[in-house]
Design brief:
Blueprint lengths: L5 E8 L5 E10 L2 E8 L4 E7 L6 H19 L11 H6 L15
Antiparallel strand pairs: 1-2, 2-3, 3-4
């Protein structure tokens, strides 16, 4: 893979039925990034590998692992998003509360 070349690892159906593509991009020698891109053009960095020994094979393995985990989450086989709870909070509509009322635990 040459610099700034991207390799698609796979895809999944996310929130609101949007297709997401998970890809590995080589930014420079020994520097790779794993990105989750939605069909609406939004993107989220999953991981960046920037160590002297970072390899394409490692980045692809991490991307495949993330893809498996995020598919499990959206398929209901995993309770939390692999990148944390912020993804769920963003997807769920926020309920209005009276002043001083605390949010209930899920």
């Amino acid at each position: 893979m040459s610099n700034a070349e991207s390799r698609t690892v796979g895809s999944y159906i996310g929130e609101a039925g949007r297709t997401h593509t998970v890809a590995v991009t080589r930014l420079a020698k020994n520097r790779y990034t794993i990105v989750d891109r939605a069909e609406d053009g939004s993107a989220r960095t999953v991981e960046t590998l920037a160590e002297f020994d970072a390899r394409e094979e490692t980045a692809i393995a991490l991307a495949r692992d993330y893809l498996e985990q995020v598919r499990s989450y959206h398929g209901g086989r995993r309770s939390d998003h692999p990148l944390g709870d912020s993804e769920r909070r963003r997807a769920e509509p926020q309920q209005e509360r009276a002043p001083g009322e605390r949010a209930r635990a899920a």
